[in-house]
Amino acid sequence: MARRFAALLPSAGEPWRFAEIGSGGVTLIRPGEVPSRSDDVTIIVPGTEVSISRVRLIGTRRADWLRAARFAVEDDISVPVESLHVATGQRASAGDLTDVCLVAKPVMDGWIQSLSDAGLEEARIVPDTTLLPPGAAPLDMGTHIAVSLPDRRFAIDKSLPAELISALTTHPGETSERSGDPLLTLAGHMQSGEIGVDLRQADYARRAELPVELSRLRLLGGLAAACVLAWGIYNFVSIQMMNRLEAELVRQTRATFTALYPDEPVPANILASVRDRVSVAGPGVASFREMSGVLYAALARSDGTNLSSLRYSAENGELQAKLVYSAFGDDEALKAAIEAGGLAVRLGDARVEDGRVVGDLVMELPS
Prior knowledge:
This protein has about 375 residues and is of the alpha+beta class. It has helices at about 60-75, 105-115, 160-170, 180-190, 215-260, 270-280, 290-300, 330-340, and strands spanning about 5-10, 20, 25-30, 40-45, 50-55, 85-90, 95-105, 125, 140, 145-150, 155, 305-315, 320-325, 345, 350-355, 355-365.
């Protein structure tokens, strides 16, 4: 379970001091010890840098509240509202007045940088004046006095004349509460339920709380739709190409089967039919695989002789081949090589076609 810590934002060169807020009370942790990234940390900043107004907010979302707050305080400030960071407190119910904090953006940038340097990027930033219960005694913070009246909250710089400080309090002459440690006092109020106004809103929100811009969602949605469309077109084109390739392969396979078995119809399952014809031969009939193996072995030993075409008859057990020879007489050498492989050979007449010596032969089992 995450622990709760509070710390006053230190001045330049001063060390960090943290108070742990537990169910049993508030205690200061040892110097040099820092909360872990999983702990709930609240950094308390001086109220002298924060102007607080009471504004009636409209709308149901915090973004609507921020727009309404900027519009409501625009006439009450002497600087452009665009130069200020605006943060709102929690609204109890519609129509109620709510605390609105205004901070100069350069000041807010400096606080964020201090948190980053200390490794406290996810810490809350809360003005000290918003942690005092309404009507509580003014709290002496050392350099200023934090005041929380029932209708307004503000901080008084102690460098001002004492008479002016007294005039700014509810009852002139009332002295501020002097705690031994203002950090422990404010942490005690937090333990009692005070949460203050977290300035980490809008542009300064923590990463996990940053609003998702609708324009970015539209852009991401458009990119996703474009990717899906491109993927769909690619798949469609690929399927069409595969279908055309399949049709061409079927056509070539049917043509090859017709060339091998010209007197037979093309079966539905060409591969199974060819496999059966090649692997199974009738009695006294050599298989296509057996005879083609002998033929190719003989061709490997016959330089200059090349195979032109091949036709197998499973019924007769004959393998007919047309060959191209380098010269007349090579057919006899090829015949001798095939017969050495155990098959009988019948040679056709050698002839010249297109300037080449060609001839036919028929292979079968010896009778």
